[in-house]
Amino acid sequence: MQSLRFKALEGLAGVDSTLTEHNGKITEVFGSNVFTGKVVREYLSDEAYKSLMNSVKNGTKLERKMSEQIASGMKAWAMKKGVTHYTHWFQPLTGTTAEKHDSFFTLKGDGTALETFDGDALVQQEPDASSFPNGGLRATFEARGYTAWDPSSPAFILEQAYGKTLCIPTIFVSYTGESLDYKAPLLKALAAMDKAAVDVCNYFDKNVTKVTGTLGWEQEYFLVDEGMANARPDLIMTGRTVVGHAPSKGQQLEDHYFGAIPERAYAYMRDFEVEAYKLGIPLRTRHNEVAPSQFECAPIFEEINIAVDHNSLLMDVMNKVAKRHKLKVLLHEKPFAGINGSGKHNNWSMSTDTGVNLLAPGKTPKTNLMFLTFFVNTIKAVHDYADLMRAAIASPSNDFRLGANEAPPAIISVFTGKYLFDVLQEVKNRVNNKFDEQDEAILKMDLHRHIPELMLDNTDRNRTSPFAFTGNKFEFRAVGSSANCASAMTVLNTIMAKTLVDFKAEVDGLIEKGEKKEIAIMQTLRKYIVDSEKILFEGDGYSEEWEKEAEKRGLANVKTTPKALDAMVTPKATQLYTETGVYNEKELHARHEILLEDYVKKVQIEARVIGDLATNTILPSAISYLNELVANINGLKAIGLGDDSVKAQKQIAAKIAEHINVISENVQAMIEARKVANKLTDSRQKAIDYCEKIKPYFDVIRYHSDKLEFLVDDKKWALPKYRELLFLR
Q1: Inside any domain, residue 43
Q2: Would 14 be classed as within a structural domain?
Q3: Looking at 525, 560, 583, which one is the last position of a domain?
Q4: What's the sign of the alpha-carbon dihedral 269, 274, 276, 280?
Q5: Could you read off the pLDDT of 267-319 as tens digits, one per residue?
Q6: Among 90, 124, 526, 692, which residue's CB has the most CB atoms within a 10 Å radius?
Q7: SS3 of 216, please?
Q8: What's a single GO MF annotation on this record (predicted)?
Q9: Is the domain of 172 the same as that of 205?
Q10: Strand, helix or coil at 373?
Q11: Residue 155 contacts by C-beta under 8 Å, 6 or more apart in sequence?
Q12: What CA–CA distance (Å, rounded) separates 131 from 590?
């Protein structure tokens, strides 16, 4: 281990950071490996093209003969680009993507070798459902599961060092039909939101026939040298450093944010951006983030399903490209203690097929009222289902980040900005239950009197808010960097669908009683503002005052994943998901079980890693140096020097011995606690036991290990240190 550390350090100076050779326009390569646009037109007949576009736009099922034609055209395009294999590319509940490659090559009965790809192979495949997380839905002897093509997400070619593969985005379901992935529930949530939003839009514009959810994610990540990472078993096994003394210089000087991008990082960015452009991922932004060696990239907004696929794909691409640059990408939310962690801000909005962003104020009373309707309904949805919003971002790694000084707290609240907050108050105060003629003036209010047309500047930015309005969209800032965006987007679009359905029912009820449509809408909006105003918060989410204020308001502050996940299986959540058709009760309980099991396993892995590091790396380093100190003390005494001459050495030796003893005792106690927890059969109880029994040992072991790193001679310390890991050379 010690030699690995110094070899890693020596290798830093020899890293080649040559820029990727692509000097043309981005548009020259953008989408070149995607079966979309002109390519589809070129390789499909008019009949097949129209059928595919109708399926994408309206969700209609493709006829068998059409799938055969599409498969044939897709194969011809892919083979022309050097592809030999294809795969159904899906997103199981492992947190990563999955693929099983099959070749176009086949042998016929007469021995004839052919390249084939038929409609059946395009539309459906059969992976093993029992080998993926399934929450008890599939036993080992019930292995069958299906992947089914999602025509709305275009196929793409994944280029690797030794070949090219045609990837077909799919959903993943069990033999009995339950969803086992992130995509299937997301598509259901988007369909539910679309229908509910169209119904409400028709109050204002009968021409609206479709509402599409849009997403612009911001991906934060760390880069460290691959050699340094490989010398840290904790980074490789858990994605974070479970021990490490903070360096003298971290992010105190605030000199990294938006600074000049280091050459090595820049070369890597250029490389993975080119790969992303080929895959149609519309990256637009790159910059240094706050912490040392932390960076961010962000794309142009896309339809949510496509955006989620692109983010999952990008994380794969980033990892693969990093290997070419001898770098390690860290997507863990908190890979290093004491400095900022990483998030994946989800910027969400809705747009109509008539070209209107429903979260952008309009220029006429009618469009202003439509904006206000969707704006208030979003706030009401978050208020009513804040517990599910919290559950959507819950993970053991995000627990380290939430509530720290760079991430929103675990308390779900909504930031609107001063101007819109004032608008809500005006509606609340001026509209009464009777809504007389004098109050009809508010229907004609000019929101642009409050909101400048330059939408990006109409509110301040509140980095402490988990869900903030930022001009023409809401930013869900609490999502973690390693998360699949589908988790947050499924919840958000589901609760939006439910709230809009309820809103329409209330408005229609008032209209049936004789109220004018606009008056009925305003009365219902006022009710929603009053009902959900406790979720609105414009101040500092990091402050202790807010925690106290939130408690007074009755807002939950759930700081651990197991308790946050409980919200998924309440009667209220079950009713929501079954009514909207996003999950059935069996699927919901399975998801809850899967996420709890994931939590337990990750805590267990970290416990084993920290125990192994302490026993086999940290303690031997400390003991070796302690022996040197003792020998030095004895040597000085042997030549006649008294206790005063070895006072400093004895103090250091005593501290090291103390830390060694505490670490050793706590590692053993942690092992015993883990044995007790392993005997428990109830997953929730397991999770709670790990939180309460094992994590405190983590903290003690980490604290004393960090002290040892500071005290032990640099040449004796086996692990690469924080100061070595944090700065990209």
Answers
A1: yes
A2: no
A3: 583
A4: positive
A5: 999 999 999 999 999 999 999 999 999 999 999 999 999 999 999 999 999 99
A6: 90
A7: strand
A8: glutamine synthetase activity
A9: no
A10: helix
A11: 34, 35, 74, 166, 167, 168, 169
A12: 15
The predicted pLDDT at position 404 comes to 66
Smallest CA-to-CA distance from 359 within 345, 340, 341, 372 is with 372
Helix count (H) and strand count (E) of the chain?
26, 17
Half-sphere exposure of 287 (CA within 13 A, CB side): 12
If one compares 425 and 683, the residue with the highest pLDDT of the two is 425
> What is the distance between the alpha carbons of residues 656 and 653, in angstroms, rounded to a whole number?
5
Give the phi and the psi of residue 89 in degrees, each rounded to 5.
-100, 120
Is the domain of 174 the same as that of 315? no
- The reply to whether 662 falls in a domain is yes
Residue type for 69, please? Q
In this structure, the chain runs to a length of 729
| Residues facing 302 on adjacent strands | 215
Mean pLDDT of 560-578: 95
Q: Same structural domain for residues 361 and 263?
A: yes
* Domain count of the fold of the chain: 3
Q: What is the pLDDT of residue 61?
A: 82
Q: Considering the domain boundaries, does residue 18 fall inside one? A: no
List the structure tokens of 222: 């760390």
The residues, any chain, with a CB within 8 Å of residue 526's CB and separated by 6 or more, are 427, 428, 431, 432
For residue 680, what are the contacts with CB-CB under 8 A and spacing of at least 6? 686, 689
169, β-bridge pairs: 89
Token reading at 63: 């006829």
Query: Hunting for tokens 């079950």 — which residue is that?
Result: 574
Residue 439: pLDDT band (50, 70, 90) is very low
**Res 541 pLDDT > 90:** no
Q: Residues 6 or more apart from 227 whose CB is under 8 A from it?
A: 4, 7, 8, 11, 12, 326
Least confident of 143-147, 509-513, 604-608: 143-147
Q: Show Cβ contacts of residue 657 under 8 Å, excluding neighbours closer than 6 positions.
A: 626
Question: Could you give the dihedral angle defined by the CA atoms of residues 252, 258, 263 and 268, in that order, rounded to the nearest 10 degrees?
Answer: 110
Q: What is the DSSP letter of 31?
A: T
Domain end marker among 548, 583, 618 = 583
Q: How far apart are CA 576 and CA 11, in angstroms?
A: 55
Q: What are the pLDDT digits (tens) for 137-167?
A: 766 666 678 999 999 999 999 998 888 999 9
* Helix, strand, coil content of the chain in percent (nearest 5): 55, 15, 35
Is the CB of residue 337 less than 8 Å from the CB of residue 246? yes
Q: How far is CA 171 from CA 303, 490, 601, 718, in A?
A: 17, 14, 26, 45
The answer to whether 231 touches 613, Cβ cutoff 8 Å, is no
pLDDT at 368: 83
Pairing of strands 467-469, 414-415: parallel
Same domain, 258 and 405: yes
Distance CA 436, CA 441 (A): 10
pLDDT tens-digit profile of 399-427?
999 876 667 888 999 999 888 888 888 88
CATH number, domain with residue 82: 3.10.20.70
Q: Which amino acid is at 232?
A: R
| Cβ atoms of residues 526 and 377 within 8 Å | no
Distance separating alpha carbons of residues 6 and 727, to the nearest angstrom = 16
Residue 550, amino acid: A
Quick one: pLDDT at residue 426? Answer: 84
Residue with tokens 């092992």: 671
Q: Please compute Rg for the chain using Cα positions.
A: 29
* Owning domain of residue 356: 191-583
**C-alpha–C-alpha distance, residues 296 and 648, integer Å:** 46
φ/ψ (deg, to 5) at 345: -60, 130
Q: What distances in angstroms separate CA 417 from CA 30, 430, 527, 540, 568, one per listed residue?
A: 37, 20, 20, 13, 30
Res. 376: pLDDT tops 60: yes
Please compute the mean of the pLDDT values over residues 168-192 and round it to a whole number: 94
